[in-house]
Design a protein that fits this description.
- The complex is a heterodimer of chains A (664) and B (315).
- Chain A has 664 residues and is mainly beta.
- Chain A is built from 9 helices and 36 strands.
- The radius of gyration of chain A is 25 Å and the shape is globular.
- Chain B has 12 helices and 12 strands.
- The radius of gyration of chain B is 25 Å and the shape is elongated.
- The chains are: A mainly beta (664), B alpha/beta (315).
- Chains A and B meet through helix 2 of A and helix 7, helix 8 and helix 9 of B.
Chain lengths: 664, 315
């Protein structure tokens, strides 16, 4: 793999030279800290937490490029799923094949890839399953967005702390607690295409210290009638096949140092695209995905600024796919995947000698079930019966060293050992220089890995798929330079440039026996990003970002499929009536994307609008949203091999949603 | 002749008597005043002091030195007071008090408008009134304004507040509360210390602290409080205006009057070392109703009416 281009290193040096005069100038602006806490500190004005000042210091001090989306953003912009949230975030884009939502990051979003190159955590619990390593972000996700307190999007390789799948980003979802509800809350929404969603939640904190939340959500959509001109059958028209049904459940209880959390989701989606050559326009084609987990955590302060966290978890995931092949003389084909895994983690964090903040930890996961099965129902023909078990363990160390009041060095390393592949070591280094209180320069380096999932390793189907147990993990190295600056009261600007190289990328290669996954890909990418956000004194807030990037194959020099060269996003929310009524506007631009068939899916602009009210009537919140306001027609590139003859799939036109939430 | 002599002598005696009465009635006490800041609370405290001396029928000549927060002015003023022959020095604020204690060892000092008065005990010629309410008072008001809170979190710098935290822990335990204290040695520790309190505490107590609770760390503490629905008890009303749920506040004029009471005793001959330092005797409070609404905390109409200041969260 090529090392970082000389140009990137030049860029690093140029920025360092640039900030020197800034820091020299900034020295004279630095306020000398008070030597003692006199009474004057009691009278000094402090900016209101509800006002224009941007308080979120955590973003500047983090050893990564981080974005935070809050529950307030989710309400004001009418986000329906985690996919909607990620679509609004710099560097990210979503592709939907009318079955699953796929996450693209920094120009990498190959059609049909499971979301196995991002790690999705819910309250620190890993949700990527142990068969496909997939992170669910659409209606199949395990958590109702109403239960999200905030989403922390941490860009860059995170394997030094989290292990596999933290390849491009870690998405950390923090859920609400019982005291956030303080009673019963009911919510209902109706949307286009006979879509409705209901939620009932209860949460509170009790006098004895117990805090609990419990919530259930049901979702149902009839979907829409679609036309695929590429498909001859039925004139390309399909109806009653785009349906979507999901039910989910979440509970969390904390008492003293213990937190117990459980979640469940099951989602069934009709497949309108006739994927895998199944009968077109057949409502019997569907996939059902489910996931449930239990997680128990113990957190305790040992004193002397040392904390211990012990976690135990157990997960179960399942996938069923029904594919009808009657029109071609075949049968109902059933595809299954079942995963069971459980394990534990111990983490110790401590502050040593006032300059070191150390985290050391160890994890173990036992995969007691990694089963894949495929058969025709009638006549019964078994094509695949694969049952596996495996285990993996890891240990990691991270040290945040305060070199001076302005300089922090964050260094981390993690060793993972897999019974299937052996071991891998992944380091990360971040140097953060804050010339002033309001600015930071971050130089970041990290490597990450993604293990091949069981589907890539062991799935087989006669004349279609060949297993490859010799697959090795993919590896990525990323170099990034970030500059963040707070201007004035609430204005924040961030500029970043990055380069990454991937080797041993797992890709499908055609063989006489069928397609086979091999470590044959090599990718390099470079890009630059700009983000501005601001809060105004009248309660308005907005953020805008622009990304320009180029991601290409090292082997062919060609740009990657489904890789937009440019992304632009704009979010703006303004209060219309005090803090009771808000208007939220969102504009997103994606440039054209190459498809697997060698064509281009045109670029497009997308506008969304939400009117949100609260406390007009005590306890009642109402939101009315229009998505794709201009009814833009646009398509997403899809896996040509899986959805042949479809190269792209049309997305939703203008849709509406009305949502009511009442807190009793 | 004899009658004329008697009348002249009597008139002279009466004249002498009246003159001496007039002379003794006009002898005012010279009081030097050092004022650290021109902020309104300091002005109110000074007026309260002067009003109390008036009520106590003490005639005073005030020589007021305004320091405007300048250490240089404080030093110069202290030197001037040293030579002025003042009978007593009143200091308002820590800048004035520090300068007076350092430069004026021979004149009694009464301090007020300082955060904590217990440091004055080290100086034999000083006493005064501190702004910090006693731990018992603070805890009692916690139980009035946040009655459902059973576990209280606090950040503190051990070099400054270790003893105070230990005392607070004992007092709270006696009152049925539990104190969870997180050490903070630099402002960079604040975020991690706050994260260590999530899920453990019902309320966050803003103990005045050089490291943990400053206008600079407010940028971490206030959003943490709002984001995690953990009400913050601010060290002062400016924190409440910024988003803390409530803070105790002061009758500055009465603080000045308390200092005046001490001054009267000193002027009557009591040495400052014999007069114990004190906390404010009047307690008021400020509420942030927007924070209460956001956190679904209900204050009774009586509590709202009783607040000295209420804030609704608008800038």
């Amino acid at each position: 793999m090529r090392s970082a281009p000389y140009g990137v290193l030049q860029m690093f040096a140029a920025v360092l030279i640039l900030v020197q005069p800034l820091s020299a100038h900034a020295e004279s602006d630095v306020t000398v800290a008070a030597q003692g806490y006199g009474e004057e500190a009691l009278f000094e004005e402090i900016p209101s937490v509800y006002g224009a000042s941007k308080y979120e210091q955590k973003v500047t001090q983090a050893p990564s490029s981080v974005s935070i989306i809050t529950s307030s953003d989710i309400r004001k912009y009418g986000y329906r799923t985690l996919a909607d949230v990620l679509k609004s975030v710099r560097s990210f884009y979503i592709t939907y094949d009318r079955n699953y939502s796929y996450v693209g990051v920094r120009g990498f979003g190959r059609p049909g890839d499971y979301n196995s190159r991002i790690l999705l955590l819910i309250d620190g619990h890993r949700t990527n399953d142990n068969l496909y390593n997939q992170a669910f972000v659409g209606t199949e996700e395990i958590l109702d967005v109403d239960l999200i307190d905030r989403v922390e999007v941490i860009r860059g390789p995170g394997s030094s702390l989290y292990g596999s799948n933290a390849f491009f980003a870690v998405i950390n979802v923090i859920t609400k607690s019982g005291k956030d509800l303080k009673g019963v809350e009911a919510s209902g929404s109706v949307s286009s295409y006979a879509t409705n969603q209901e939620r009932l939640s209860y949460g509170d904190k009790y006098g004895n210290g117990l805090e609990a939340i419990i919530s259930g959500t049901g979702y149902k959509s009839n979907g829409q009638q679609l036309t695929f001109p590429e498909i001859a059958a039925n004139g390309g028209v399909t109806a009653h096949t785009d349906y979507d049904r999901a039910k989910s459940f979440f509970t969390k209880a904390s008492y003293k140092d213990f937190t117990f959390e459980g979640a469940y989701v099951e989602r069934t989606k009709g497949i309108p695209t006739g994927s895998f050559a199944a009968d077109f326009n057949d409502p019997g084609n569907k996939t059902t995905d489910g996931h449930s987990y239990l997680d128990v955590k113990y957190e305790h302060s040992l004193g002397a600024q040392t904390d211990i966290e012990v976690r135990a978890f157990s997960d179960y995931s399942w996938y069923n796919g029904d594919y009808n092949y009657f029109t071609t003389g075949g049968a109902l084909n059933k595809d299954f995947g079942y995963g069971n895994w459980s394990g534990g983690e111990v983490k110790l964090s401590s502050r040593l000698f006032d300059v070191h903040r150390i985290i050391v930890g160890a994890e173990y996961t036992g995969n007691s079930r990694q089963d894949q099965r495929n058969y025709d129902v009638e006549p019964y023909t078994l094509y695949l019966e694969d049952q596996r078990r495996s285990r993996d363990w890891a240990s990691y160390l991270q040290d945040e060293i305060t070199l001076s009041k302005k300089m922090v060095l964050n260094a981390g390393v993690r060793y993972d050992h897999y019974s299937q592949f052996g071991g891998t070591t992944n380091p990360r280094l971040a140097f953060i220089y804050s010339p002033t209180e309001k600015s930071a320069v971050k130089l970041l380096y990290g490597s990450a890995f993604r293990i091949p999932n069981d589907y890539e390793l062991f799935y087989s189907f006669p004349l279609s798929s060949v297993p490859n147990p010799e697959l090795k993990p993919e590896k990525i190295k990323t170099y990034e330079l970030v500059y963040e600056h707070y201007l004035g009261e609430g204005f924040r600007a961030s500029v970043s440039g990055y380069y990454y190289g991937i080797k041993d990328l797992i890709d499908q290669e055609d063989t006489p026996e069928g397609s086979k996954f091999e470590n044959i890909g090599e990718i390099r990418a470079k890009g630059a990003e700009l983000e501005l956000d601001n809060k105004w004194s009248n309660g308005s807030e907005g953020r805008a970002s622009y990304t320009i990037q180029r991601t290409q194959s090292n082997l062919t020099g060609e740009p990657l499929t489904n890789s937009p060269a440019q992304l632009a996003k704009l979010n703006f929310s303004v209060p219309i009536m005090g803090d009771k009524v808000f208007a939220g506007f969102e504009e997103q631009y994606m440039s054209k994307r190459r498809t697997e068939a060698g064509n281009y899916s045109p670029g497009f602009y997308l506008s969304n609008f939400t009117l949100y009210t609260r406390n007009l009537l005590n306890g009642l919140k109402v939101s009315a949203s229009v998505y794709n306001l201009m009814n833009k027609k646009y398509n997403d590139p899809v896996s040509f091999g899986d959805l042949y003859p479809l190269d792209t799939v049309q997305q939703d036109g203008r849709t509406y949603r009305l949502k009511l939430t009442y807190a009793f | 002749m004899k009658i004329r002599t008697i009348i002249s002598t009597a008139a002279a005696a009466v004249f002498l008597l009246v003159s001496s009465l007039i002379t003794s009635a006009g002898a005012a006490e010279k009081i030097a005043v050092l004022v650290s800041s021109k902020d309104a609370p300091f002005e109110e405290a000074l007026k309260g002091f002067q009003g109390h001396l008036d009520k106590a029928a003490v005639q005073a000549d005030y020589e007021v030195h305004k320091l405007d927060g300048s250490a240089a002015k404080a030093g110069q003023a202290a030197q001037a007071v040293k030579k002025s022959g003042a009978r007593l020095v009143l200091t308002l604020g820590s800048l004035a008090t520090d300068a007076a204690i350092k430069e004026i060892p021979d004149i009694p000092i009464v301090a007020c408008m300082v955060l904590r008065a217990d440091g004055l005990k080290k100086s034999p010629n000083a006493t005064g009134v501190g702004l910090e309410f006693s731990l018992e008072v603070q805890t009692s008001w916690m139980q009035v304004l946040v009655p459902t809170a059973k576990t209280v979190g606090v950040l503190y710098n051990p070099d400054e507040n270790k003893m105070r935290i230990e005392a607070a822990g004992r007092i709270m335990q006696n009152m049925g509360l539990k104190l969870v204290a997180q050490e903070v040695r630099s402002s960079q520790d604040v975020t991690a210390a706050l994260e260590g309190l999530v899920k453990k505490v019902d309320v966050l107590w803003g103990l005045a602290d050089t490291v943990a609770m400053t206008p600079q760390t407010a940028k971490n503490v206030l959003p943490f409080s709002v984001r995690n629905n953990i009400p913050l008890i601010g060290p002062s009303p400016t924190w409440v205006k910024a988003g803390a749920l409530y803070a105790l506040e002061w009758d500055y004029a009465d603080v000045g009057a308390q200092a005046g009471d001490m001054a009267v005793k000193v002027l009557k001959g009591a040495p400052p070392s014999a007069i114990p330092t004190a906390s404010p005797r009047k307690v008021y409070y400020a509420l942030n109703l927007k924070t209460a609404q956001e956190m679904k905390i209900t204050f009774s109409d009586q509590l709202i009416r009783g607040a000295r200041h209420t804030f609704t969260g608008e800038k």
